[in-house]
Amino acid sequence: MKYEFQPIGIIQSCFKEKFGIPRQSGLIPEAEAILTILPPYNRAEAFRDIEGYSHLWLSFVFHAAIRDQWKPTVRPPRLGGNQRVGVFATRSPFRPNPIGLSVVKLIDLDISAQQIKLKLGGVDLLDGTPVLDIKPYVPYSDAIPDAEAGFAPTPPGREIQLSFSRQAESELQKHSAEQVIQLKRLIYQMLSNNPRPSYLEQEKRNRFGMRLYDFNIIWEVEDDRYLITELSPLSDQPFA
Ligand code: SAM
To answer: Where along the sequence do coiled-coil regions lie (predicted)?
Structure first.
């Protein structure tokens, strides 16, 4: 048996590379994306009444994690990257069918002419992710407060100290106060979720680069102190 599915839309995310993306949705409310609906699914009536829902389920393709072979066990970053567990006991992108499932906040729905765009918050999605389906999140059925969560019982993340170099601050001054607050919050949340793969932590590497919107961001870390050393725009519209 084989099934073929067409994406109904494509994600344009603040995350331009995998490094630094939170490991689940909802962890970083400031992480925003636009989902642009593709033809023939860009029909206003297909979205009628969706605004009554604050959150949506997205099923999507882990398009940057497609492998010819699958492995029955994976090493979740949550367990330090050393311990193997069954792929079906994880939410790893590397699975027999590379399909992901995320709950995201519906911030806005924009329908104009033939364009349908959904503004989403709390995403854990790479830029360019193809979306297969959208369904409303229904708390009375989907929220299970006393559910058990195996090796991931509590959210990751911790308090950190974050500062910006003079160069980074002066680059940020070129943007609106609102954009700066959002970007700083986003960077704080990303770093407090500790995006470093455990093998680099063991190697004591402390200088990293990541792309966020269209900024290239270089940061250094020592214990729980993080410094944004360089922040440079890669295009004329770094928040696009
Ligand atoms: N919430 C989803 C789920 O449970 O199916 C995704 C969880 S998965 C652990 C999240 C990670 O997938 C992110 O940290 C990022 O590294 C990776 N990721 C996100 N979008 C991707 C894509 N389109 N292709 C490959 N990897 C992706």
So the answer is: none
